From TrEMBL, chain A:
Belongs to the binding-protein-dependent transport system permease family. Residues 1-28 are annotated as: Disordered. It is a multi-pass membrane protein. Residues 106-320 form the ABC transmembrane type-1 domain. It comes from the Bacteria. The chain crosses the membrane at residues 38-66, 106-131, 143-163, 195-218, 247-264, 303-323. It is found in: Cell membrane. This is ABC transporter permease. GO terms for cellular component: plasma membrane. InterPro entries: ABC_transporter_permease, MetI-like, MetI-like_sf. It holds the Pfam family BPD_transp_1.
TrEMBL record, chain B:
Residues 1-20 are annotated as: Disordered. This is ABC transporter permease. Signal peptide: none annotated. Residues 87-283 form the ABC transmembrane type-1 domain. It comes from Streptomyces olivochromogenes. InterPro entries: BP-dep_ABC_trans_perm, MetI-like, MetI-like_sf. CDD domains: TM_PBP2 (cd06261). Keywords: Cell membrane, Membrane, Transmembrane, Transmembrane helix, Transport. It is found in: Cell membrane. The chain crosses the membrane at residues 31-48, 86-110, 122-145, 165-184, 205-227, 261-283.
Length: 333, 297
């Protein structure tokens, strides 16, 4: 361990270890080549797998969206005729049934995502801030709050399906039989109510993630900041506004984006909650495209819809990062 | 974050204000946390209590308290559907995906954290952006790709556990790499440079010095990878057949029967949740520590 002193304590850029351990290794050429190749070798497995499972299929997907890929060509999809932008035209022709349904599904997804992300963030942040100080039972409560996040999606959502049952579910029993809030038992998994059912399940499942991340972010705020603020006479509310929330900004930037992408693309929750065909009021885009591809066997149109979805997410993410990063810079200076 | 404040010694984990918080704050905290606990616990209670109820209790009107307790559902779940087989499949798939994902992520994150090389930024941005892809976009192409690879090489990826392992490990890979980069960055470079000088190769330095110092981060990543693979539904529903079916799809077998055995469904849900929830709760301290050191910095 004595040799550590040789490496300067704080030379700033030390990302290239091959220069620092001394000149003795310089002339050995095979070693040098190995050292240059090493980072690439280390990355290779990850790179190959990402290419195989994500990037190549994505390219194939884009390719398929320009083909007339219906059930007649599914056995040998290479022979399907080219169709130019036809699949895209069908998808965005909002006066025809296919385009209209897609637009509706898109709008439902946007509304659902905004509400779900907002609520998850709010509940998660509030809980994390309330639990910043130690109190009796905090550890237990924290573990408890993480249970919805830890449960496998299907197990959790199936439980909610049971609770939302018309005749033997808990929700109707409480709202109708016990609180008498409704005239007759409601349907939760079909019709307009299904939107609220989906939102409830999504928030129940999603908020602990926000809680977890904000909690981790809070631990990076030095306690001295609060002590100094308290000495200066700042109350709890001011400490929250001047210290906690500004310090959480970088964490929130990533957290909100991740929550947005996960919620917008969520397939598991609606699929387990409603089955293959979601009710119109809760027709999220992933299930809609799945339905358009696998139920009607029209994979070309399904691919075109997926590509449009990806483009939308790329634009939103780009604009979001641009706006939040710029806001952050001006706020810091 | 304001860098001036952080130059102070960071030892203090003191309570955040020397004064006792006002009563109004304590009351609002009590009310908020109580309501939240109720919201979180009700489904858990329904799952646990319904799994111990006789069938009559779950078929008629919902009742908070069971008319009688029975463990029959826990015996019946194994024969109604081949749950044991699904369970083994899920264990194999999630376990293998986790191990592979963690090993690959450790190597990749070490390269990004310790070396500067051409294409580093492109790599990290590309890997992270795959998180954004809607799963539905590459479900069908991946399905066709696996079928074609199978036809060309004889390696069965479609319908096999191998294909599912391969798919799942790439799902958790981007987040794992990202989190481990942050974690490795927080391990002092002096440590692995000392190991290099002492004659370890770069891999020796990684395995003997960096990995042991980053265990909490690695555990956190493993937990995440396992949960991702254990809970995935979309690809499992398309890419498995009767012998390779995992719990995510298999559990739906209980509700396709004429009579919906809700007590058995709840019992099965509980049984498949126990391994992940128990593991998660045991290791959640590492996850928080890992996130604190890595992802949220």
């Amino acid at each position: 361990m004595t040799t550590t002193t040789a490496a300067s304590a704080d030379s700033g850029e030390r990302a290239v270890p091959k220069d620092s351990p001394g000149a003795a290794r310089g002339p050995r050429r095979p070693g040098r080549i190995r050292r240059i190749a090493l980072p690439y070798l280390l990355l290779l497995p990850a790179l190959i797998l990402e290419l195989l499972v994500h990037l190549v299929p994505m390219v194939i997907g884009i390719f398929m969206s320009f083909k007339e890929l219906t059930q007649f060509y599914i056995r040998d999809w290479g022979t399907a005729p080219w169709s130019g932008f036809d699949n895209y035209k069908v998808s965005v022709d909002f006066s025809a049934p296919v385009g209209k349904a897609l637009l509706h599904s898109f709008l439902v997804t946007v509304g659902f995502t905004l509400l779900s992300v907002g609520l998850c963030w709010l509940i998660g942040t509030a809980a994390a801030i309330y639990m910043q100080d130690t109190f009796r039972g905090r550890g237990l409560l924290r573990a408890l709050f993480l249970v919805p996040y830890a449960l496998p999606v299907y197990a959790a959502v199936i439980t909610w399906v049971f609770m939302f049952q018309h005749d033997n579910g808990l929700v109707n029993h409480v709202l109708h039989d016990q609180l008498h809030l409704t005239d007759k038992p409601s349907f939760w998994l079909i019709g307009d109510n299904s939107f609220y059912a989906l939102l409830t399940v999504s928030v129940w499942k999603g908020w602990p993630f926000a809680f977890l991340i904000v909690m981790a972010g809070l631990q990076n705020i030095p306690g001295e900041l609060y002590e100094a603020a308290a000495l200066d006479g700042a109350g709890l509310w001011q400490q929250l506004r001047r210290i906690t929330l500004p310090s959480l900004r970088p964490v929130n930037q990533v957290l909100v984006l991740v929550l947005f992408l996960w919620t917008f693309n969520d397939f598991n929750t609606p699929f387990v909650l409603f089955g293959r065909t979601a009710p119109e009021a809760a027709d999220l885009i992933s299930v809609h495209i799945y339905q358009a591809s696998f139920v009607t066997w029209n994979f070309g149109t399904g691919s075109a819809m997926s590509v449009l979805l990806l483009l939308f997410l790329l634009v939103v993410t780009g604009v979001y990062l641009l706006l939040t990063s710029r806001g952050r810079k001006t706020a810091d200076v | 974050m304001s860098s001036t404040a952080q130059t102070a010694p960071r030892a203090s984990k003191a309570p955040r204000s020397p004064m006792a918080p006002p009563r109004s704050f304590l009351w609002s905290r009590r009310i908020f946390l109580t309501l939240l606990t109720g919201f979180v616990l009700v489904p858990v209670y329904v799952m646990v209590s319904s799994s111990l109820k006789p069938l009559a209790d779950v078929s008629g009107k919902f009742r908070w308290l069971p008319s009688g307790l029975t463990i029959r559902p826990y015996i019946d779940i194994w024969s109604t559907v081949p749950l044991a087989r699904y369970f083994v499949n899920s264990l194999i798939v999630a376990g293998a995906a986790t191990v592979c994902s963690v090993v690959i992520a450790v190597f990749a994150a070490y390269a990004v954290s310790r070396y500067s090389f051409r294409g580093k930024r492109v790599f990290t941005v590309t890997v992270l952006s795959t998180q954004m892809f809607p799963g539905i976009l590459f479900l069908l192409p991946l399905f066709l790709l696996y079928v074609n690879i199978g036809n060309a090489t004889g390696i069965a990826l479609f319908g096999s556990r191998g294909g599912l392992i391969l798919t799942y490990l790439t799902f958790s890979l981007p987040f794992s790499i990202w989190m481990l980069i942050g974690y490795f960055d927080s391990v002092p470079r002096d440590l692995d440079e000392a190991a290099l000088v002492d004659g370890c190769g770069p891999l020796g330095a990684l395995l003997r010095v960096v990995v042991p110092a980053a265990i909490p981060g690695i555990v956190a990543v493993a937990v995440y990878a396992f949960m991702t693979a254990w809970g995935e539904v979309l690809f499992a529903s398309v890419m498995t057949n009767d012998t390779t079916r995992t719990l995510a799809v298999g559990l739906q077998g209980y509700s396709t029967l004429n009579n919906v055995y809700w007590n058995q469904i709840m019992a099965a849900s509980l049984v498949v949740s126990v391994p992940v929830v128990a593991g998660f709760l045991l290791l959640q301290r590492y996850l928080v520590a890992g996130l604190t050191a890595g992802a949220v910095k």
